[in-house]
Amino acid sequence: MGSSDAIFVVGAGRVGAALATALARAGATVVGVWSRSEAGASRAGALAGVPAHHGALPVAISGATVVLVPVPDRVLSAVSGALLEGGLLRNARAVLHCAGGIPAAEALAPLRSAVPVGTFHPLVAIADPVRGAAWLSRCQLALEGDAEARAAGRDLAAVLGARAIELAAEALPLYHAAAVLASNHTVALVAAAAEVLAAAGVPAPVEALRPLLRSTVENLEALELADALTGPVRRGDVSTVERHLRVLADRAPGWVEIYRAGTIAAVRLARQLSQADPAVLDAMERLVVGPRRG
C-alpha cells in the first residue's frame, strides 16, 4: 500500500475490529473506526489503538483514501448510501466491503458512480477480534470488483502479509459456499458429534472431541488431503458404516443424513488412495446412497 494511504474502518464488529487492529499493528495508517454503538466503537478503537467514532458517520471518514465496510450484509446498501449522501468519500480511491458472497457491484451499488468498489473477504474464521487479528496475516483474502478497488485490496493484503486471490463476481457465491462448508459447518458438525457422544454417555463431549479435532487439523497441515482421511471408509470397513447407520437411526435419527453425506464425501476422497479397493468403496457407496447409475 502506498505510504500516503489512510484507512477508515466503517463497522466495529468482530471483523471490523480485527481488521483495524491487524492493519494498525502492521504499520498501516488507520485513521479511525466507527460503530453505531459507543461501546462497540470504544472496544475496537482501544484494541486497534486508533480513534473511535459512534453514532452518525463522522467527517473523519472523508480523510481516508481506502474505506473498509465490514458491516452485516443486510445494512451494506444503507451504509453505502449514507457514505455517499454525507459526501464522505471525496478522497477515497476505493471502498471495499467484506461480505464473501455478494459482488461489490451489488453490495455497494449506491457508490458505483462515485468511487471504485470491491470485495475484501478474509478466508478465515473470526470469532473474536483478538484471535482474528492474529490470523489475518496468515490467511488468504478474496478480492473482486473494479480494477482500482482490487489494486487497493492487494495493497492491504501486502501490508497484512496475507495472500490475495482474485475472483470473478460470478464466482463469489460458490467461493463463499465453500467457506461456509469448511468453517461454519465444521462447528455445526462438532455440535452434532457432541450430541451423539452425550447420548452414548460420554461426559463433557466437546472437551472430549478437542484432541480429535486438533489431530485432524494437524494431519491436514502435514499430509495430502486423501492421506489425512482416517476411519472406517479409509479401512474399507463396510460393516462398521452399516452399524453406525443402524445405531444413529435408532438413537440419533436427526443426524443420519449428515452421516450419509459425510460418508459419500469420504468415499470420493478414499478413491484417490492407491491402496483403496474400488469394489469395497462401491459397496460402501451403495449402502449409503443406493446403486450407482450409469
User: Count of DSSP helices?
Assistant: 12
Structural domain count:
2
- Could you state the order of secondary-structure elements as H and E? EHEHEEHEHEHEHEHHHHHH
Amount of helix: 40-55%
Say how many strands there are.
8
The CATH homologous superfamily of the largest domain: NAD(P)-binding Rossmann-like Domain
Shape: elongated
- Largest sheet entry: 8 strands, mixed
Q: Could you name the CATH topology of the largest domain?
A: Rossmann fold
Beta-strand percentage range:
5-15%
At CATH level 2, the architecture of the largest domain is 3-Layer(aba) Sandwich
Q: How confident is the prediction overall: mean pLDDT?
A: 94
Radius of gyration: 23 Å
Q: What structural class do you assign from the helix and strand content?
A: alpha/beta
Keywords for this entry:
294 residues, alpha/beta, Rossmann fold, N-(1-d-carboxylethyl)-l-norvaline Dehydrogenase, domain 2, 2 domains, eight-stranded mixed β-sheet, 12 helices, 8 strands
Report on the architecture of this protein.
- This protein has helices spanning 14-25, 38-48, 76-85, 104-107, 129-135, 147-160, 172-199, 205-222, 232-235, 238-251, 256-270, 278-289, and strands at 7-10, 30-35, 52-54, 66-69, 94-97, 117-122, 140-145, 163-166.
- The chain has 2 domains: 7-167, NAD(P)-binding Rossmann-like Domain (Rossmann fold); 174-289, N-(1-d-carboxylethyl)-l-norvaline Dehydrogenase, domain 2 (Orthogonal Bundle), CATH 1.10.1040.
- Helix 11 (256-270) packs antiparallel against helix 12.
- The longest helix is centred in the middle third of the chain and has 28 residues, at 172-199.
- The chain starts with 6 loop residues before the first strand and ends in a 5-residue tail after the last helix.
- The chain is built from 12 helices and 8 strands.
- With 294 residues, it is α/β, with parallel strands linked by helices.
- The model has no long low-confidence stretch (mean pLDDT 94).
- The chain has an 8-stranded mixed β-sheet with strand order 3-2-1-4-5-6-7-8.
